[in-house]
Here is the input.
Amino acid sequence: MGQYDDLKRLVEAVHAYRTRRTIPADAEELDAICTRILENDTFDETAIEWKRISDYEQEVNGGSWPKPD
Here is the structure.
């Protein structure tokens, strides 16, 4: 998958989280996408935002992703 497609998936996930507070079923895959994006561009705002969401949600849920809605 290309960088554009990766970014599109992250943008959609961040938007869903912000507007509906939903965790996508593929959250762990999105973490891997985020890592790939940040390897190519350490200042990518969408990837940084997803990383914040991921870190927060996993911290408040005992170290793992909660079950998706």
